Amino acid sequence: MPHFRIETNIPSDKIPKDFVLKAVPVLAKALGKPEQYCVVSVIPNVAMSFGGTTDPCAIANLMSIGALGVEQNKKHAKVLFELVEQELGIKNDRMYITFEDNPTGNVGFKGTTFHALFG
CA distances (Å), 19 to each of 43, 55, 98, 109, 117, in order? Predict the structure, then answer.
């Protein structure tokens, strides 16, 4: 259910092949969610300018059912910005992350919703 999606102007050949595999356990630990439900995706080669330059930059979204909030997001931001800077080389002042806390009824899985599965 958690999904960390990054859109970036970095070319696909500069994205480490194992980035998404490395990122899933980081995301799962930060959110306290099982790895089997976590998704990380990277959309490279996006025509993008941040602050008037085309230096490496990104826009990201973290969607989750719960585990998000004012104080929690500060901790998530720290971990995720560190991960992106270390692995993709995007400085923390060249990316935004939006946080999206969805109710269980708004996220589908296995032909139904998480609300139907877990209440």
Answer: 12, 20, 20, 25, 30
Place of tokens 């991960």: 83
Per this entry, what is the length of the chain? Answer: 119
d(CA 38, CA 25): 8
Dump pLDDT digits (tens) for 26-42. Answer: 999 999 999 999 999 99
- Residue 7 · residue 115 · CB < 8 Å: no
Which residue is listed with tokens 């630990």?
29
Nearest to 77 by CA among 92, 67, 59: 92
Q: Name the pTM for this structure.
A: 0.96
Instruction: Give the type of residue at 82.
Output: E
Q: How far is CA 65 from CA 31, 32, 92, 94, 114, in A?
A: 10, 11, 25, 27, 9
Q: Rounded to whole angstroms, how far apart are CA atoms 38 and 62?
A: 11
- The catalytic residues are 2
